[in-house]
Amino acid sequence: MKIEISDNVKWHHSLTIKMMMLAFLGLFLLAPLEMIKEIIRERQKTSEEVKKEITTQWAGKQIISGPVLNIPVRIIPLKKEVEPYKPYFTLCLKN
């Protein structure tokens, strides 16, 4: 019985070559992936800075006070030519 060795083995049939190509492509595609992640991180940072800037410009410190009591007061002037008027006496109750 005679064993013949043929050189007709194609390189794309080799499992080792296929694994090496997949590893190379995986490593090669990590660079663009990191670039995209860096852009995402930069935009998130910019978004947080804009949120802080808007809150400092628009909101500021807020003051919370207690209930306000408006009491209508009728003032009658001493001169008869002037008509009586009703201003409001405002009382702000704080804790």
Largest pleated sheet: 2 strands, antiparallel
> Number of helical segments?
2
Overall pLDDT, averaged? Answer: 81
Low-pLDDT regions: none
Radius of gyration, whole Å: 41 Å
How would you describe this structure to a colleague?
By secondary structure, this protein is mostly helical. 45% of the residues lie in helices and 11% in strands. The protein has 2 helices and 2 strands, in the order ααββ.
Tell me briefly what this model is.
With about 100 residues, the chain is mostly helical. The protein is about 45% helix and about 10% strand. The N and C termini lie far apart (about 110 Å).
Keywords:
95 residues, mainly alpha, two-stranded antiparallel sheet, 2 helices, 2 strands, 11% strand
